């Protein structure tokens, strides 16, 4: 059983605290422990909303496989015991993750130096200024840097936790967990879609119908011109609208969906890899293997052996 310790201390954001509890309690193969050394005050929008007593102490987190730090007040210094616990966790090989402003705690512990990291887009500049050794990316929903993971603002903690389930248990388990918590297992785009973008032509049009059409035509060699024609936009305006609404480009979004579909077929079917390559629009096994390796970090065959 994989033990997930969720750290709790005064000023913790109540919503952030409950995200890993919900996701990992529904996912298979995890035991969740909320760890705190005393009764704590949980907050929402900076105001205390309730107090809680955790069933585990901070010492219990020293034996966890994954340690999660929810968001809190970035202006308040984190408890020394929490910083020491996090450093010890990394030294012994445990995985550590933060949600929203929890990245400030990881940075204070020195665990983000020289690493890419995410936090709430509104505070990304503050994190970069306070910890210049951290490579802050304000555009993504989360960053997976191997042993250390960080999520962007608030609800992106759901994306991060589902990503961890996908990494540990496979896409099918993440999809089932997502269904149970009524959350898509992988949202398109990044945090950039929630930052205000100005489009001088029209920033209200919905690309939902075009995204669904692209998803339904993954096997076809779609071009930007064809996608633009379906959306009744010029290619230039499509690219601007697409980035404003999804945080990425049309072809990058299409590539992500194709890799995700390939993962699902590798896990849930016995289709030959050659057919999966054609079905997902990659055409050849070589092209599938190249893009799959870049995104997933392994080959389609090895992935199937691990997660089917």
From TrEMBL:
UniProt keyword Transcription regulation, yes or no: yes
Gene3D superfamilies named in the record: 3.40.50.880, Homeodomain-like
GO molecular function, one term: DNA-binding transcription factor activity
Keyword tags: DNA-binding, Transcription, Transcription regulation
Signal sequence bounds: none
HTH araC/xylS-type domain residues: 208-306
Matching InterPro entries: Class_I_gatase-like, DJ-1/PfpI, Homeodomain-like_sf, HTH_AraC, HTH_AraC-typ_CS, INH-QAR
The UniProt record lists the keyword DNA-binding: yes
Superkingdom in the source lineage: Bacteria
One Pfam family linked to the record: HTH_18
Designated name of the protein: DJ-1/PfpI family protein
């Amino acid at each position: 059983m994989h033990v997930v310790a969720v750290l709790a201390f005064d000023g913790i954001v109540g919503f952030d605290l409950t995200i890993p509890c919900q996701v990992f309690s529904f996912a298979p193969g995890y035991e969740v422990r909320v760890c705190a050394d005393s009764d704590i005050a949980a907050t929402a929008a900076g105001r205390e909303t309730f107090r809680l007593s955790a069933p585990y102490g901070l010492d219990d987190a020293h034996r966890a496989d994954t340690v999660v730090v929810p968001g809190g007040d970035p202006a308040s210094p984190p408890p020394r015991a929490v910083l020491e616990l996090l450093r010890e966790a990394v030294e012994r090989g445990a995985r550590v993750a933060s949600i929203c402003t929890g990245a400030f705690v990881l940075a204070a512990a020195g665990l983000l130096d020289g690493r890419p990291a995410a936090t709430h887009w509104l505070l990304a500049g503050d994190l970069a200024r306070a910890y210049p050794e951290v490579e802050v990316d304000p555009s993504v929903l989360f960053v997976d840097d191997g042993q250390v993971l960080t999520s962007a603002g608030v609800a992106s903690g759901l994306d991060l936790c589902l990503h961890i389930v996908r990494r540990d248990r496979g896409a099918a388990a993440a999809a089932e967990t997502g269904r149970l918590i009524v959350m898509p297992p992988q949202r398109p785009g990044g945090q950039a879609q929630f930052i205000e973008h100005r489009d001088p032509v029209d920033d209200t049009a919905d690309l939902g119908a075009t995204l669904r059409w692209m998803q339904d035509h993954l096997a076809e060699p779609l071009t930007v011109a064809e996608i633009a024609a379906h959306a009744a936009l010029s290619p230039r305006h499509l690219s601007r609208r697409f980035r404003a609404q999804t945080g990425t480009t049309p072809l990058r979004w299409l590539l992500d969906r194709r890799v995700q579909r390939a993962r699902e077929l590798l896990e849930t079917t016995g289709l030959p890899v050659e057919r999966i390559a054609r079905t997902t629009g990659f055409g050849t096994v070589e092209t599938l293997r190249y893009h799959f390796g870049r995104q997933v970090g392994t080959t389609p065959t090895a992935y199937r052996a691990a997660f089917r």
